[in-house]
């Protein structure tokens, strides 16, 4: 197995790969927040529908009708529900970002991920100390 710290690679290349990896990780966090937005918006719509039913049950039909007409099932942005936003993000940005990261790793590090972090682990761990073992592909 190849040493994941890739001593054969130039430090500047490893630094650039590390920045690209960190950038992708930030996009992954943004994607998680977008999925959270998607779920929270869906939950809000379900709660709104329950409120409409309760207003209707209490005789407040005009208010219930208005809420249902104006808000239930409304697009969150022009022409889109949140699932469409998530799908567009995945198709047009997230997948392209992941492919670019993979291409850079394939081209420069034989596909190895987290080379910068592997080097950091080698540099910062205490050799021979319990809980500081090198671990897979760093021995």
Q: How does this structure look, described?
A:
The protein is mainly α and about 140 residues long. It has helices at about 10-55, 60-70, 80-110, 115-125. The mean pLDDT is about 95. It contains four helices and no strands. The chain has one domain. Helix 1 (about 10-55) runs antiparallel to helix 3.
Radius of gyration: 25 Å
What structural class do helix, strand and pairing data support? mainly alpha
State the end-to-end CA separation. Answer: 10 Å
Main β-sheet description: none
Mean pLDDT over all positions: 94
Q: Strand portion, in percent?
A: under 5%
Number of strands: 0
Mass-distribution shape: elongated
Point out poorly predicted stretches.
Answer: none
Number of domains: 1
| SSE order | HHHH
Number of helices: 4
- Helical residue percent band: 55-70%
Region (Disordered): 118-139
């Amino acid at each position: 197995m190849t040493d994941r710290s890739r001593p054969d690679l130039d430090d500047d290349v490893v630094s650039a790969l590390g920045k690209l990896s960190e950038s992708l990780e930030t996009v992954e966090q943004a994607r998680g927040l977008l999925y959270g937005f998607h779920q929270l918006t869906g939950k809000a719509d379900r709660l709104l529908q329950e409120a409409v039913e309760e207003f209707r049950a209490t005789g407040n039909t005009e208010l219930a009708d208005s809420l249902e007409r104006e808000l239930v099932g409304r697009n969150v942005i022009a022409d889109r529900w949140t699932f469409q936003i998530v799908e567009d993000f995945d198709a047009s940005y997230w997948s392209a970002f992941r492919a670019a990261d993979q291409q850079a790793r394939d081209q420069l590090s034989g596909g190895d991920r987290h080379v910068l972090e592997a080097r950091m682990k080698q540099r910062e761990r205490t050799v021979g100390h319990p809980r500081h073992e090198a671990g897979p592909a760093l021995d």
